[in-house]
From TrEMBL:
Family: Belongs to the pyridoxal phosphate-binding protein YggS/PROSC family.
Keywords tagged on the record: Pyridoxal phosphate
Source lineage: Bacteria, Bacillati, Bacillota, Clostridia, Eubacteriales
Record SUPFAM superfamilies: PLP-binding barrel
Pterin-binding domain boundaries: 164-215
Residues modified to N6-(pyridoxal phosphate)lysine: 28
Record-given protein name: Pyridoxal phosphate homeostasis protein
CDD domains on file: PLPDE_III_YBL036c_like (cd00635)
UniProt source species: Anaerobranca californiensis DSM 14826
Length: 215
């Protein structure tokens, strides 16, 4: 079941683009049995929104890479660093300083995306568009932090066309910043179960899929 769901997502994306899009199964609500079905078929990348989820699951699924997509508390950063191959949800200087400190302590560099709040909903985390450039300049001075791109969450909607502008604006912001010399902003993490096809049309390189896979 779960594998079929994953393959359906993969198929739909292939019909839209020749580009490589990483399908990130969001396992925060998944059972170990559901994850096992993907794991035994070679899927080795999962996303969690809390460090606890990772701590519960990673022993069952060795040799995977894990992505952090949820809000980060500063006292959890020490458990995060070294365990996640990509942090999607960086948007606070205080957290960046913690990530940098623990990364340097472990002699590693932590890959991060900057979370942007395009829709300006109060319930969403992330920087406003006009704050991103200064934050990138701040991050560029932290040797333990490597910025790979931008992430956003669109408002929930039944009709994904209504949130196309969110994905388009994130891509345009990325392009603008690249033109200003931030060349390392390759990744665009955008699109979830109900809107990932629109996000892919607008240039997503990573889609975060929970309920559409782990139903
Ligand atoms: C839960 C979650 C997702 C996946 O949501 P679905 O609608 O279940 O696909 C994606 N991104 C973030 C940040 C999440 O917390």
């Amino acid at each position: 079941m779960v594998l079929e769901n994953y393959l359906k997502v993969q198929q739909k994306i292939k019909m839209l683009t020749k580009n490589n899009v990483l399908i990130l199964p969001v396992s925060k609500t998944a059972t170990l049995e559901q994850m096992e079905e993907l794991y035994k078929n070679g899927i080795r990348t999962f996303a969690e929104n809390r460090v606890e989820g990772f701590l519960q699951k990673h022993k069952s699924f060795p040799n995977c890479s894990w992505h952090m997509i949820g809000n980060i508390q500063s006292r959890k950063v020490k458990d995060l660093v070294g365990n996640f191959s990509l942090i999607h949800s960086l948007h606070r200087e205080k957290i960046a300083l913690e990530i940098d400190k623990h990364s340097r302590g472990k002699e590693i560099i932590t890959n991060c995306l900057v979370q942007v709040n395009i829709s300006k909903e109060d319930s969403k985390s992330g920087l406003y568009k006009n704050e991103v450039e200064d934050f990138l300049i701040f991050l560029s001075k932290l040797p333990g932090v490597n910025v790979r791109g931008l992430m956003t969450m669109a408002p929930f909607t039944e009709n994904p066309e209504e949130v196309r502008y969110v994905f388009k604006e994130l891509r345009m912001l990325r392009d603008e910043l690249q033109n200003k010399g931030f060349y390392n902003l390759k990744e665009l993490s955008m699109g979830m179960s109900n809107d990932y096809l629109v996000a892919v049309e607008e240039g997503a390189t990573i889609v975060r899929i929970g309920s559409e896979i782990f139903r």
